Amino acid sequence: MDFSQLIITRRSIRKFTQETISDDDIKKLKVAALCAPTSKNCKSWQYAFVTNKDKIKALAAAKEAGSEFLSEAPLAIVVMADTTKTDVWVEDCSIAATFIQLQAQDLGLGSCWAQMRLRKDASGNMASYNIKNLLNLPADFDVLCVIGIGHPDQQRRPYEEEKLPWDNIRDIK
């Protein structure tokens, strides 16, 4: 599919089949992640590709709400950064997360981003702290999001061009 079609058809998918993701597709997702641009080419982003079901369930519980869908994903990708490398790590990781989700769509996989940065669990602990403890990450790392990826078990309609929020764009000539 061409890029324009990819953009229109990519929607957040929160329900997945239990079919595993092939090693070849996981490698393509890794390549996409590593090709994402970073400020001054500092490569601040870091990733954890998690297929262990127990760890995925723990990632889903890292914050109080909005990440439950992760528990059924066959793959969870933690998008994080070494915060000592740049002060724009959030932007670097956001671009990388988008690359990952577009690659997933191109492979026929569904994906959804679960925000973790600045989010807390029911006890008031930071989600990033919970994830760093779960995965034994260095203290200088911070977590932006966890992306759940799998074979879609729901259908979402493509965006309709005429229904896009065109008022959000200002043409300055």
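(ticket continues) Second input and output from the same batch:
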Amino acid sequence: MENKTKATATLAASALCAVSTLPEISPLRFILTGSVGNFILGMMNHGFLAATIGGMADWFGVTALFRKPLGIGFHTEILRRNRGRIMEAIVEFVGTDLLNTKNIMETIKDENAAQLLIDYFEQNKGRDKTKILMREIMSELFNGLDTKKISAEVAPLLETEIRNLDAEKFFDAVIKVVTNDKHSRKILITLLDTGHKILRSPHMQEEILKKITELRTAYEGDSAGRALVLSSMDLTDEKILKILNETVEKKISEAEKVLNTSGVLVDSETANAADEMIKIFGGFVKNAAGSLNTKKFLDDIKKLFLQKFDTENFVKTWLDVNVKGDTDPRILEKLRRQQAANPKSTLIVEVERKPVIWRESVDYLVDAKIDEFIKSEKLQKNFDKLIKDFIEGLLNEYRGQIPQMIRERLDKFTDDELTEFVEGHVADDLQMIRINGSVCGGLVGMALFIVAQIIEHLLQGG
């Protein structure tokens, strides 16, 4: 039950009880008889009457704050009539006294801004949110790059560097890397895996089958005996292809197993076999490189590269894909070809963008700086001081605007809106005044009745 309802019920009950305890008409006069009964009945009547008067007076006072009770305009509607003075008092108290720089700084001086930031990083996913924010900032910066203009400026420089490249030295460095045991092993594994895929491809199977047919035909020639031997052994072209596939795949799988086996538990036979393969591969690469006219070969490659390679478009595409994070044009072209080949397809393909090259670096930098901040008391003290100095500086700079902001906000209220706003927030609490008025009035009324009776008795006795 709201306080207003309670106050009204208290007032109504007081008035009803005041009437029902009038000595002349009260039904209680038949119960409360004699001098004691008359005393109790009178005391109750005076108490309830005083409670009614007190409740009515307080109702009038509370109502007069906001409107005209009973239509009486004399010194009522206090809030509306004194709006200007009340407004200025509020502005002065809140803007000047309550929200002054000294009071605010006194409130926040014991707060540890650095610890609040650490809690944000460690407990509220602040670390991840900071990374996301930094990525967005970097994305905005890089998205503003004019990659076409940059590529036009960089491409000539890149082409000049390619022309001036000491190809022989570069080639020798590549050969050293390729023939290094560690890299040779990885290259061989990749080549074997690629060999698996090429061997299994339908096109390669078709070509191998054609060659088998040609060889079988040449082998048989005009010899019926050879044809009979092959027929009796049920060696059809397809079966020969199957045997060949199984044999080659077995050899490739065995080589992959040998090369992929590493560690201290590798037996000596496997280790020696791997070393032998790596040695043979290295020798093959060196022999192949030695048989080349390296200078002419590399000069021809450079010349062909510069003729066929669109350096400017390459730089632009690389920047768009790896720095801006745009979708690779080759992927889009592949999707367009697929769509053209299947025009009736309604499947929507989601293209996964290639992660930008700077993302991991930015994330690593954010993690490193956050960890450094968490571990360093000096950084925390400096941050705490920086934040508090910044807040104090803002308060000093804009302290004159705080009262103005409050005033402007209050001025937006009409008289009716202001009255409703204030009444909505405090009226229910003010109703307690009415309840207290009724209770206090009742107690005072009874006390005065008792005093009056004592005085009257003393005077009669005298």
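Agent notes: Residues 274 and 420 are 90 Å apart (CA to CA). Residues 415-461 form the longest helix (47 residues). Closing as not reproducible unless the customer responds.
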